[in-house]
Amino acid sequence: MHLLGPATTNVYVGTTPMSDAYGRTPHSEVNPNEGNQSVLSLTPGVPVWIGFTCVDQSGQENRSDMTVVGPIVPTGELNDNQAPDPIEGTVASDVAEDEGGRISVSWNASDAEDCAFSTVFMKQGDHTSSDGPFGSVEGFSQAAILNPCDDNQTVITSLDGVPLIDGQVYTVGVVAYDVWLNGNTAEVNLVTVTPFQNIVGQGSTPPRITALMAFDHANDDGTAIDVVWEPSTVDDFASYTVWVANVPVEDLSTAYAAFGTNPETCGCFSFNKQWIDERTNPIELTLSTALYVPAGGDLAEGTPGLIQPDVPLFVAVTVHDLKGNVHLTNLTQVTVTPVNNQDDTTPPNRVTELSLNDRPNDDGSALLLTFEPSTSGDVARYEVYAATYDFDGTVAQQMAPVATLGRNPTMPVVIDLVSGDAPVIAGQEIWVAVVVTDSSGNAYTTQLSMVSGTSTNEGVTDPGNYLPDIENVQAAWSGENDVLVEWQHSVNANVRGYHIYISDEMFTSTDEATMVGQTVSANSFLITPTVFEDLDNSTAWYIGVVPYDDTVAKSTVEAVKVSALETVTNDDPSGDETGQLSLDSLLTGPNLIAAGMVLIIVLLLVLVVRSRSNATQRSKSWELQEATWGIQGGWDTPPTAPPAVIGSNPSAPAPPQGISTQQANDLYAAANQIQSVNAERQAYQPQQPVLKPQVNQDLLDGLLDDAAPAQKMPQIDTSFLDDLL
Questions:
Q1: pLDDT at residue 511, rounded to an integer
Q2: Is 63 left (phi over 0), alpha (psi -120 to 50) or beta?
Q3: φ, ψ (nearest 5 deg) of residue 616
Q4: Distance between CA 198 and CA 351 in Å, rounded?
């Protein structure tokens, strides 16, 4: 988005398709000096739509003019370019017992592991193929998008913004998409359906909106108000209309007859979304126009105009169905006074009606507080103070609130701590007061209404033990800094939502952990360093999920472990499976056996090498003896020679194989010459021992035996005889 001048860009994120920003809160803001790129931390695997709007210097924003991209699925998986298998079991039928204009579509949920969402395609007319039930949805329109893929049923009331026509044939097909938006649109199970009106006359009228609140819009000049209400649960919903006027709007019959829902004449606002992202989320709209009626006049005489500060306004909301049925009388209305917050110095009215009761079926560790909200229209928050003594309705600066609630608090409020972070003890009297603060920070802190109460120990350690355990809780690192927690939805009707807890030690009670968030209808939660500052990937964490109902949350829990990213072990099924190897992961039974076998093999190799070295040395010494003196055997066992005959000249034995006859004769001739005595010398010479080769005839006989070939001996080097001579 390109910004033409100083402004900011509001970024909106939704889990359902959106076309405007009405009823939504910005996910983040991007200033012009930050460029046109931003990083969003989102839940992996959940399809989202991202919208952008421009805000000028005065804070004005055109919420109807939004640039939307999506669906986008945050994922760290690799794109396999493979679409999930075609959806089977698609059934489309007319909704029974209605006024027409509605069809019901169901199908078999996709079993693809990477399935992210399912899309229902529709087109007027019969476009099924005669060749079989499968065909292409090219040219079809998207009628509905459902996530996750477990949702396999929906009711469709319009196509391309136009209500379905009774008696008109429609062709319907469902396509499953993975996280990389791979979907098989060429092979889709196509069916036909026709909506009909099944009842005669006018149908039922949607119930009136009764849970309704209105507030002054914070930090403005008194030209806007905020309206909050609980969504309608009617099946054939068409739209809401918010009526704002300076006179009561309990009866709109004359105004509706005169204006209808034309915003240019009624000063009202129509809103065609039954809920925002989740069915149980309250809808909140900011309005800047109202119908102003002259003094003493009727609603039909009013004219629309911009909201004016300090002029009390009356607000009501009507619900319209597909056939236009609506309640126009006996409506619930609330009042609000827009305030210029820049000059506001008046605190909101004190809370006067409080009630403090013991929480039933517990161990006396909590009390339940209820009170009537302030009638002031610019309330920003409520602060609850509790102590073990009567502080006489005056909140000192050193006292810290035990709970801070929004401007639309949920009752009752659980009081389990008192001032000083001390726990509530059974039988001890507790005093409680509530301080109301407006958007300008104004508040009364004296002369507060107080209430006291005492808790009772019924011997129940977990007051929410009647609530079910949450099953299939899984937690794993998402990237390097975040932890993604997922679980299976509870089907218990008492469950209103889920609390998520975390600790660096194993815990079985939520009292031993830190609560990091809660969800109402979502079954996943992303823990980031933003929501839990102590989160780091070098520490193992334990995470638990517990349900809560209207009054209490379950405290007993079975936590799952997320191992540190650097020291993940493979034998821990509850931890993450990514990370570096640790010593514990290496010292396993199979690894130790393999290491022992490798050590044995190394020892055997050393022994073999040493034995071969000794054998080589012994072989070389034998060859030297054999070649020089004709001696066979080792150094330690000399051969036994026969007695020599004096005066005889023994003949040379036959040479061994590998030695020629001439070489043998030269060898023995040299030996005989050394043995003879020089008779011409006159000087006395003592007799010197002379080495004389001894011949073992038996060995020679064996050498001359041709039956077994002897080992070939190397050629003999006789150069040493020259040195001897």
A1: 85
A2: alpha
A3: -65, -40
A4: 52
Residues 669, 252: Cα–Cα separation, whole Å: 146
Structure tokens at 427: 């039988």
Q: Which DSSP string corresponds to 19-44?
A: SS-TT---SEEE-GGGTT-------T
Q: Are the C-beta atoms of residues 152 and 81 closer than 8 Å to each other?
A: no
Q: How far apart are CA 107 and CA 170, in angstroms?
A: 17
What CA dihedral angle connects 702, 708, 709 and 711, to 10 degrees? -70
Predicted pLDDT at 661 = 57
Closest CA to 207 of 100, 315, 331, 96: 331
Residue 67: both structure tokens together: 């640039």
Read off the tokens for 404.
């801070």
Q: Write out the CATH class of domain 212-336.
A: mainly beta
Amino acid at site 286: T
The C-alpha atoms of residue 515 and residue 261 are separated, in whole angstroms, by 45
Q: How confident is the model at residue 274 (pLDDT cuts 50, 70, 90)?
A: confident
Pick the CATH number of 91-193 from 1.10.1660.10, 3.50.30.30, 2.60.40.10, 3.20.20.370: 2.60.40.10
Cis check for the bond before 148: say yes or no (omega within 30 of 0).
Answer: yes
* DSSP codes, 516-530: EEEESS-SEEEE-TT
What is the pLDDT, as a whole number, of residue 382? 92
Q: Distance between CA atoms of 491 and 14, rounded to whole angstroms?
A: 25
Is 599 in a helix, a strand, or coil? helix
Task: Tell me the C-alpha distance between 653 and 664, whole Å.
Answer: 8
CA dist list (Å): 218 to 39, 262, 439, 670: 28, 28, 5, 126
* SS3 label, residue 392: coil
Q: Which of 403, 350, 578 is nearest to 477 (CA)?
A: 578
Give the contacts of 459 (CB within 8 A, at least 6 positions apart): 363
Contact 30, 8 (CB under 8 A): yes
- Asked if 69 contacts 50 with a C-beta cutoff of 8 angstroms, the reply is yes
Q: What is the C-alpha to C-alpha distance for residues 277 and 184, in angstroms, rounded to an integer? A: 26
Instruction: Pick the range with the lowest mean pLDDT from 134-148, 425-439, 523-537, 561-575.
Output: 561-575
Does residue 143 sit in helix, strand or coil?
A: strand
DSSP letters along 301-360, please?
G-EEEE--TT--EEEEEEEEETT-----SS--EEEE---BTTS--PPPPPP--EEEEEPS
- Cβ neighbors of 599 (< 8 A, separation 6 or more) are none
In the chain, what are the domain boundaries?
Answer: 8-72, 91-193, 212-336, 354-454, 474-586, 620-674+689-725
And the tokens for 158?
């319009």
First CA to last CA distance, the chain: 109
396 φ, ψ (degrees, to nearest 5):
-80, 160
Rounded to whole angstroms, the Cα distance separating 23 from 163 reads 23
The lowest-confidence range among 157-171, 355-369, 612-626 is 612-626
pLDDT averaged over the chain?
80
Cα separation, 298 vs 291, in Å, equals 11
* Superfamily grouping for domain 354-454: Immunoglobulins (2.60.40.10)
Residue 448 has pLDDT above 70, yes or no: yes
Please tell me the predicted confidence (pLDDT) of residue 572: 47
- DSSP string covering 444-481: --SS--EEEEE--B-S-S-TTTTSPPPPS-EEEEETTT
| SS3 (DSSP) at 462 | coil
Residue 476 DSSP symbol: E
Strand partners, 484: 476, 526
Closest to 428 (Cα-Cα) out of 475, 365, 478: 365
Q: Which fold has domain 474-586?
A: Immunoglobulin-like (2.60.40)
With beta carbons less than 8 A apart as the criterion, state whether 493 and 544 touch: no
C-alpha distances (whole Å) from 178 to each of 8, 394, 424 are: 34, 59, 50
Give the SS3 label for residue 384. strand
